[in-house]
Automatic annotation (TrEMBL):
Highest taxon in the source lineage: Eukaryota
Organism phylogeny: Eukaryota, Sar, Stramenopiles, Ochrophyta, Bolidophyceae
Keywords: Guanine-nucleotide releasing factor, Repeat
Name of this chain's protein: RCC1-like domain-containing protein
GO cellular component: cytoplasm
Domain (RCC1-like): residue spans on this chain: 115-501
GO terms, molecular function: guanyl-nucleotide exchange factor activity
UniProt-annotated stretches for the region Disordered: 1-40
Repeat in keyword set: yes
RCC repeats: 113-168, 274-341, 347-397, 398-454, 455-505
InterPro entries named among the record's database cross-references: Ran_GTPase-activating, RCC1-like_dom, RCC1/BLIP-II, Reg_chr_condens
Keyword presence, Signal: no
Biased composition (Basic and acidic residues): 1-13
Length: 505
């Protein structure tokens, strides 16, 4: 089976053409002792029902709830000390309720799901087979039959491969395995279980790597590729780092992980207590912290690569200080972080990394090596994701925003887009005929997916590889409803040249 060359192949990350596409223990923040007094008006008991949770995941849910409660208490006490009686508790309480809902959904068991994939499947990333043209190029959402008995709780769509986490804590992988991306032996285009990991809660796929988490730990397989196309892997041994991992490798020194996200060649983990760490290759500032060059002249500095790039370390916020990280989204070479603000209780959005098309949303095209605040006029960001050179988010107020590169319609805000078009600040995106409120977003390399509580799925952007699901290989400059989606939509994900939708049966 032939392997498609990835978009923008071996070009330097800082020199992508604007033409048409053709490419130590790390822990969370310290919380105050559990005996710290809670104001009387906040002492309402919250009952947690575990009747619908299976035993393997119950302790993980309760552990995450305990971490959340400790951090929430710390936030309330900090706000009270900073602002006194005038402190507003509405926003932090809304964030708390939203986060508990996320945890409940993450560990809820028993819901039967169907995985729908579409777009390019020339490397088996659609899991529909490789026997016919319709298997390799799927124009509309099509159910993956090999996963019809699974209950999928997380889906990660990578460059040319995917991972899916089930309610029983297993990981299925499939797609291109040239760089160890599927982490197992066996037929690569079939969804098969990855062994050598614990009971899992989350996972994601990057360009050539996969990362999963469970029980506070995380595992990696595959490879990180630098701008010259050389492979690197997770390890603490400088003699092993310039290689790939063909099976899961537990990430040393990383504890308290509750969620993971992948960029093209880097990863981010959200920790209990609101911490966030990154690791991988940070050539463009995508790690959200300053790191040294990978090379001294023409020679790789393996010790520095392991110490500063590969070893997980906390992100750094411009201006200093720590913040409670609620969620993380990753573009190919940039990171997007949602925080809960200690003073106002609102949700802040921060970004760092490659910014050649304004994908950081900071009003310019200068790269950043530390997280900087994105201005969204005070709206509370619910979730965020990034593509090759663009970003996408939605807010609690109902808004959808996009920024960065837009010359294939990725931003969804203009009827026609000239070569090199971009927006360096968040721009509102209109969803025609929308029913209900926005529930989730997913960014592919050069396209987007959004779904609502009314079970509508919208897509727009680069369409030559059929990843938009509208039946034609053409771009969509505005959001358009995907017609053939049945069932309650649970999540969406965009890959390099394909898309995935999970619905309940």
């Amino acid at each position: 089976m032939s392997k498609r060359v990835r978009t923008d192949g071996d070009l330097s990350k800082d020199n992508y053409s604007p033409s048409k596409f053709g490419g130590v223990v790390v822990s969370g923040n310290t919380a105050p002792p559990s005996s710290a007094p809670l104001p009387p008006h906040l002492r309402r008991k919250v009952k947690v029902s575990t009747s619908s949770l299976s035993k393997p995941l119950t302790h993980q849910y309760l552990r995450s709830m305990r971490g959340l409660n400790s951090s929430f208490l710390a936030h309330l006490l900090s706000s009270s000390q900073t602002l006194g009686p005038s402190a507003s508790l509405v926003e932090p309480c809304l964030d708390y309720l939203s986060y508990t809902s996320d945890l409940s959904a993450r560990y809820q068991q028993g819901e039967r799901t169907s995985l729908l994939t579409f777009g390019s499947g020339d490397c088996g990333q659609l899991a529909h087979g490789i026997d016919s043209d319709s298997d390799l190029m799927c124009k509309a959402p099509k159910s993956v039959l090999d996963l019809h008995t699974a209950s999928i709780t997380k889906i990660g769509a990578g460059g040319l491969h995917n991972v899916a986490i089930t309610s029983t804590g297993e990981c299925y992988s499939w797609g291109c395995n040239d760089d160890g991306s599927v982490g197992r032996d066996g037929t690569e285009h079939l969804p098969l279980i990855v062994g050598g990991v614990g009971k899992l809660e989350g996972g994601d796929a990057g360009d050539c790597q996969s990362v999963v988490c469970g029980g506070g730990k995380a595992w990696f397989w595959g490879a990180y590729k630098d701008k010259e196309g050389k492979c690197f892997r997770d390890t603490r041994d400088p003699g092993m780092v310039k290689n790939k991992a063909t099976e899961p490798w537990e990430i040393e020194g990383l504890e308290g992980v509750i969620d993971v996200k992948c960029g093209a060649s880097f990863n981010a983990a959200v920790l209990e207590g609101g911490g966030c760490v990154t690791w991988g290759l940070g050539e463009c500032g995508e790690l959200g912290r300053k790191v040294g060059e990978m090379k001294d002249g023409e020679k790789y500095n393996m010790e520095r690569i392991v110490r500063e790039h590969i070893t997980p370390a906390p992100v750094v916020f411009s201006g200093g200080g720590s913040r409670f990280v609620r969620r993380v989204g990753c573009g190919a070479y940039h990171i997007l972080v949602i925080t809960v603000e200690a003073t106002s209780g609102g949700c802040g959005l921060w970004s760092s990394g490659l910014n050649n098309y304004g994908q950081l949303g900071l009003g310019d095209i200068e790269n950043r090596t530390e997280l900087n605040r994105v201005d969204l006029d005070g709206e509370r960001v619910e979730d965020v994701d990034g593509g090759m050179h663009h970003s996408l988010c939605y807010t609690a107020e109902g808004g959808v925003y996009a920024w960065g590169r837009g010359d294939s319609g990725q931003l969804g805000i203009k009827d026609s887009c000239e070569v090199g078009y971009c927006e360096t600040e968040p721009m509102p995106v209109a969803l025609p005929g929308s029913v209900g409120r926005v529930k989730g977003v997913g960014a592919g390399s050069n396209h987007n997916l959004v779904f609502t509580t009314g079970n509508q799925v919208y897509s727009w952007g680069y369409g030559d590889m059929l990843a938009l699901g509208h039946g034609k290989d053409r771009d969509e400059n505005r959001p358009r409803i995907i017609k053939k989606v049945e069932g309650r939509v649970l999540m969406v994900a965009g890959g390099g040249q394909h898309s995935a939708i999970v619905v309940s049966k």
